[in-house]
Specification:
The protein is α+β, with helices and mostly antiparallel strands. It has helices spanning about 15-25, 50-65, 95-110, 110-115, 115-120, 170-190, 220-230, 235-240, and strands spanning about 35-40, 70-75, 85-95, 130-140, 160-165, 195-205, 210-215, 250-260. Strand 6 and strand 7 (about 210-215) form a beta hairpin.
Length: about 260
């Protein structure tokens, strides 16, 4: 029996209040959410169509049956002449135990096994991708829950940006997290930069780091928002605070388009 698609949306009116209130609260004893950011590197012989079919027909419906979502699936925005090199999958979890429980549930899910057979039953000589790399994040105080603003999925022109801020050591990484919690996110919102999730890496290939995903109405809105952020008077004050100097040693930035079946 087919299941109707889950809808995940949030009114825009309270987004700034969420960020401001969270920044004023005492630290939480445990995160409200955790995120897996899964990067599927296609390589020269990758089969993007097979991966899309697996994600669309097998994995996302199975996670939906487990109550996990919204799940985002994205590819880098590229020119028509260039193929995308990676697929990004973002999965939110309510707690750490849910990650292990989800894997066990997939192994027992017959509908998942059937729908994903073309992908799951491939042998070692015909892999659909070159490698999968994942990082596990914990939600931060300034943005404790996934937010997909109302109307986002109906906008075919929307553009996303995934950023990873890497730090030279754990002390500097924690200071960058503190900088976000101390007021960077309200400046985002005031500038037109709409977060979907923000998380600090617990495990990953580029720790210490934090990663966040933002969404914009279109490419012009994305460029305008970042121009506004850089010129924002509050950012000029915060960015010149010597406490936060040198907290980021590397920035990885990906401008993304959502897959048609993405829930973000």
């Amino acid at each position: 029996m087919a299941h109707p698609p889950m809808k995940f949306s949030t009114p825009l009116g309270w987004l700034a209040l969420v960020a401001l209130t969270a920044c004023l609260h005492m630290p939480m004893t445990s995160a409200e959410e955790y995120y897996e950011v899964r990067t599927i590197q296609l390589g020269e012989n990758g089969d993007a169509e097979a991966i899309d079919q697996y994600l669309k027909k097998a994995l996302l419906p199975a996670l939906e049956r487990q109550g996990i979502g919204p799940v985002g699936v994205f590819s880098p925005k590229t020119s028509p002449q260039k193929k995308a090199s990676s697929i990004f999958v973002i999965i939110p979890y309510s707690d750490l135990d849910q990650i292990e429980a989800s894997q066990k549930a997939l192994a027992k899910d017959e509908a998942y096994q059937t729908a994903g057979a073309n992908y799951l039953n491939r042998d070692a000589k015909s892999p659909p991708y070159a490698r999968i790399s994942s990082e596990l994040l914990t939600a931060m105080e300034c943005w404790p829950k996934t937010v997909v603003p109302e109307g986002t999925l109906e906008n075919d022109e929307r553009v996303y940006e995934l950023r990873l801020y890497e730090s030279a050591n754990e002390r500097l990484g924690n200071l960058k997290v503190e900088m976000f919690n101390a007021g960077e996110v309200p400046i985002f919102i005031d500038s037109g930069i709409q977060p979907i999730f923000i998380g600090q890496a617990l495990v990953g290939p580029q720790t210490p780091s934090l990663t966040y995903l933002t969404v914009y109405k279109n490419e012009a809105a994305r460029e305008k928002a970042w121009d506004a952020f850089r010129a924002h008077p509050d950012w000029k004050v915060l960015s010149k605070n010597p406490r936060y100097g040198g907290t980021v040693s590397r920035i990885d930035k990906f401008v993304l388009a959502a897959k048609p079946y993405s829930q973000m």
